[in-house]
Amino acid sequence: MRLEKYLIQCGIESGKKIKKLIRNGEIFVNDIVELDIGKQINEKEDKITYLNEILKEKTLRYYVMYKPAGYLTAMSNPVNDKPTVADILPNWIDKRGLAPVGRLDKDTEGVLIFTNDGNLNYELTYPEKSIDKEYYAELDRIISDTDIYNLENEIIIDGYKCKPSKAEKITDNSIVLTIVEGRYHQVKKMLKAVNNRVNYLKRIRFAKVTLDGMTLGEIKEIKRETIL
Ligand code: URA
């Protein structure tokens, strides 16, 4: 098997692309650094290590939760004991190695993907991949056509110019906003930048994953190919 494929199958967790890990000399095959991504390895016999740990193939799992408001996006919260999304994962899900993909605020509802596939998690959250995230937002004040134009093209938050987004007016004070980044509180800050405020926020799509047929709080297993 190709080294790259093996590392994907191990669900390797890292803030870097697998290609980069190999290029940086962070992957060892039988204690020797390996720089060739296409290196053929024997998964039964070769010892593959990263950060001094021997990597093992695992079953990669993917889930989508229709997150309710009131839960932090975290797998544990020992500091202040606030409820987290991990608390509402059903018992049939093995939590080991599982992580949420990106983050929804405590008061935000909607699509939250979980996986133990570190490579896919990275692909979905790395800013330059420009993956769609679609939000339905109810607002404090009426939204004008100028606001819609500005939301799509002209928003600066914390000194950073947002990438173009798509904004669609649903009613006088509700919109669907599709963004390709995932900055902290991005939707709320974008609306603040046009002098409005989000009263209710729901993520209705992340990449290809929607809430179709799901009820609030539900979680179901999905296939990798239905995500990207
Ligand atoms: N943007 C926000 O402001 N909050 C979220 O939870 C997600 C996107």
What does this protein structure show overall?
It is a single chain. By secondary structure, this protein is an alpha+beta fold. Helix content is 17%, strand content 27%. It has helices at residues 3-9, 18-23, 118-125, 145-153, 186-193; strands spanning 27-29, 32-33, 48-50, 53-54, 62-67, 99-100, 109-115, 133-139, 156-157, 160-161, 166-171, 174-179, 198-206, 209-210, 219-221. Strands 5, 6, 7, 8, 11, 12, 13, 14 and 15 form a nine-stranded mixed beta sheet that branches. The mean pLDDT is 95. Uracil is lined by residues 104-105, 108, 185-188, 201.
> What fraction of residues sit in β-strands?
25-35%
Q: What low-confidence regions span 5 or more consecutive residues with pLDDT below 50?
A: none
Largest sheet: 9 strands, mixed
Q: How many domains make up the 3D coordinates? A: 3
* Amino- and carboxy-terminal Cα gap: 24 Å
Nutshell version of this structure?
This protein has 228 residues and is an alpha+beta fold. The chain contains 5 helices and 15 strands.
Task: Furnish the topology, listing elements before pairings.
Layout: H1 3-9, H2 18-23, E1 27-29, E2 32-33, E3 48-50, E4 53-54, E5 62-67, E6 99-100, E7 109-115, H3 118-125, E8 133-139, H4 145-153, E9 156-157, E10 160-161, E11 166-171, E12 174-179, H5 186-193, E13 198-206, E14 209-210, E15 219-221
Parallel strand pairs: 7-13
Antiparallel strand pairs: 1-2, 1-3, 3-4, 5-7, 5-15, 6-7, 8-12, 8-13, 9-10, 11-12, 13-14
The structure holds uracil.
Uracil (URA) binds next to α5.
